[in-house]
Amino acid sequence: MAGIPVIAPSDLASFDPADTVVVVMADFGLYGEAIVQAVAAQGPFPVITPLEFDTLPDLLPLVTAPTSQAWPADGSGAGEAAGWRDVPAAFGRVLAEVVRPRTADAPLPAVPGHACLLIGSLSPGGAERQIAYLGAGLRRRGWRVTVLSFYPPMAGAENYVRLLEAAGAELLVLPSARAIWGTLTRADWQRWTPALRLGCPLASFMQHAVVAVQSVLEERKADVLFTYLDANNLVGGMAGLLAGTPRIVMSGRNLNPTHFPGMVDFCSDGAALPQLFRRMLNCPGVTMTNNSRAGAQSYASWLGVEEAAIPVVANAVDVATLKSVDRKAGERWRRHLGLGPDQPVVVGAMRLAPEKAPLRFLEVIRRLRDRLPDVHAILLGDGPLRAAVEDARDALGLDGTVTLMGARADVYELMLAGNLLLQTSTVEGMPNVVLEAQSLGRAVVATAAGGTVECLTAPLRPYVQAGQPDRLVDGLVSACTELLSDRRRAAALGAEAAALIARDFSIERMTEATLAVAGLA
Description:
Elements: E1 22-23, H1 28-40, E2 47-48, H2 56-64, H3 87-98, E3 114-118, H4 126-140, E4 144-149, H5 158-167, E5 170-173, H6 177-181, H7 186-198, H8 204-220, E6 224-228, H9 230-243, E7 247-252, H10 273-281, E8 286-290, H11 293-303, H12 319-323, H13 329-336, E9 345-349, H14 358-371, E10 376-380, H15 386-395, E11 402-406, H16 411-415, E12 420-423, H17 432-439, E13 443-447, E14 464-465, H18 469-485, H19 487-504, H20 507-517
Parallel strand pairs: 1-2, 3-4, 3-6, 4-5, 6-7, 7-8, 9-10, 9-12, 10-11, 12-13, 13-14
Helix pairs in contact: 3-7, 3-10, 4-5, 4-20, 7-8, 8-9, 14-18, 17-19
């Protein structure tokens, strides 16, 4: 980059820390700590990333004086940060300066055209599942689809990859910092300066992300960009505006970020985030959706806009895949786990994290066992509370009553081993597992968190519980008792729910609704 030598950390011993700067091109979030330790072992060298504006232009002449003029001297780099004390005002000013004009009456893109879908990575999560469904649905409608991610697909996301590849979608890992900044020229710097200016309030890795997404949108000449989850919404919104993408649809997949501590750390002023989003939403062709009314209300309040400004596009279920699950699999799992054919079985499928309340799940099972001594529970999932869940299960004397199965690919087969799904969340968007359990013909008992009620079919809504924690647990226990004591009724309710889910929550319906929001139906 501008003549900076590429060397191994061990070679630093031959350099003087007084006139040497280490510029890290690798992913600093993933490898930064290890790199800093390796460098520190060689001496007190300053370590920076390529996007640290307050430092880089001043330090580069120490390393490469002959070519330092390739870096801007007009304040678009280091000087930019000084004008961002009032982040919303500065963002609005830069937005007006660097984004090409957009008009509300601009002609629509060709339909079907080229859609880019942005997600952090394809991983075994709910938002990732839905973006895979959207990609497949768009392909069925004749759209060219490119799914953009910052990292390769993760373990557990194989089904999503297969679905997208079978549909003919392109899966593209965005250019790394090394790929973009490792061969920087004056022309490159001029090209990316607007993105770096607009992304000034973001963490450095997200400034790079804006550049990476913009580069692909321009290269692919995307007609519409769909982004899922807030960090991607922020990056994608900026990149899409800079690239001149005609339609940009950002999507919140839960309640607003204030419900998730640490989720706003990617901005230098977390309190300014609503205003940044609102300024982008004021641009023609830019929309934000949510997957539940509860989520839309939450975002509207946070953003300071009318609820109607956040359209709701409900999650979808892959009905064909769920219909293909072997119905005998549940019986086989019962035999494998030593459970009788008529034994009452409750299934939980969740990330073992605070918002999913897995400890509440255990408490419900403990009280339920007092009423139905032969009840058994299967808990699927993993997460940061795994150890706490294991300890609590043993402390409550549930080691013979609750089977912890961890994260698995055969969740649907294990759901069929149960009589009902128990969901105990405190915070939810539109829980995929609740939709899928119904599609498999299983009754659901759930809390009223977020958009849970919205994705339950009418026959099962009486089994949704709300209230203070202890009263809530009692309500969940009573609902489970009622359904497990009359399993014929539970099966009938599940069968009715499956038909309604197939009608109202298909991939085709979700795709159509998403295109309608973008004005492209």
